[in-house]
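R.M. (postdoc): so does anyone remember the format we settled on? I'll just put the structure tokens first.
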């Protein structure tokens, strides 16, 4: 499976994304690419004049988009979320708006997209040196998850990856090394999660750990270290110990490896697409696709 496969899957679904404050050429280029490739139509919510300027900036046609005027970022976020909550759009996407303002509307108890679980971020990588898509979670939302939060992050990832057709994903619970060390919580949590999976408390996946990065993705490294596991060297998902390690790992792969990538926030009633200003047009489009599967 690769991003081309994900694109094909989305094209058959006729999806709609609600975009809050889609100002600037980069955001609109991604949305125009999604429209031209029959991946998704967009509802653009924000200041109408700024939206139209952004559309004209990239040479696109204003008439190809539904534009909903909002006088402030707060109003735009509220209206954008309402389209998803009322099932008029399949995902919500952040444009040029403060993350705090955007997320406040998303998580509003009465009108938002909260559903009881925690939110977590998933990044997908298509790297030339790996034989399939690799997913890393959570490098963006939960700062220092305890064991119960790691279970929820894990369940979010399993549920998402299963939707892509991976019926029983292989999850490597990450640490600095592959041996359990009672002084290092990441290793003991990994062992507990693996045992919970063995006993059926965590379902629909192979979960094992602790793993270091090398033996999670390299069968050769795992064999050299004598690790025998269904997951070793063949992981679909890497569950990281905390947001710092996850973000560092994700950014290192993004900038140092020859790969394509995208990301999405899961755990709400609908996917949340949070784009980075540093993302290029292809990455933005990959993230949109991930949010619409």
């Amino acid at each position: 499976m690769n991003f081309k496969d994900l694109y094909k899957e989305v094209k058959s679904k006729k999806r709609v994304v609600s975009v809050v404050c889609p100002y600037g050429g980069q955001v609109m280029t991604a949305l125009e690419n999604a429209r031209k490739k029959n991946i998704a139509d967009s509802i653009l919510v924000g200041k109408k004049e700024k939206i139209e300027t952004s559309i004209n900036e990239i040479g696109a046609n204003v008439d190809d988009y539904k534009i909903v005027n909002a006088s402030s970022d707060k109003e735009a976020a509220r209206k954008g979320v309402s389209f998803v909550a009322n099932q008029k759009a399949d995902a919500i996407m952040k444009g040029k708006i403060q993350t705090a303002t955007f997320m406040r509307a998303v998580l509003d108890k009465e009108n938002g997209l909260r559903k009881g679980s925690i939110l977590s971020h998933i990044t997908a990588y298509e790297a030339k040196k790996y034989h399939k898509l690799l997913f890393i979670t959570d490098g963006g939302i939960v700062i220092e998850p305890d064991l119960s939060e790691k279970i929820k992050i894990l369940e979010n990832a399993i549920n998402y990856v299963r939707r892509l057709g991976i019926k029983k994903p292989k999850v490597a619970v990450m640490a600095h090394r592959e041996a359990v060390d009672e002084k290092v919580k990441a290793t003991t949590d990994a062992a507990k999660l693996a045992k919970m999976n063995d006993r059926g408390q965590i379902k629909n996946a192979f979960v094992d750990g602790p793993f270091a990065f090398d033996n999670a993705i390299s069968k050769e490294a795992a064999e050299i270290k004598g690790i025998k596991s269904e997951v070793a060297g063949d992981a679909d998902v890497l569950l990281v110990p905390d947001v710092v390690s996850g973000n560092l790992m994700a950014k290192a792969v993004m900038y140092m490896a020859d790969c394509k990538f995208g990301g999405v926030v899961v755990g709400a009633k609908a996917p949340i697409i949070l784009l980075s200003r540093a993302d290029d047009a292809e990455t933005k489009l990959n993230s949109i696709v991930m949010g619409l599967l």
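R.M.: ...and that's the designed sequence above, right after the tokens. Also worth knowing: The chain has two domains: 3-115+268-291, 121-259. The first strand starts at residue 15 and ends at 20.
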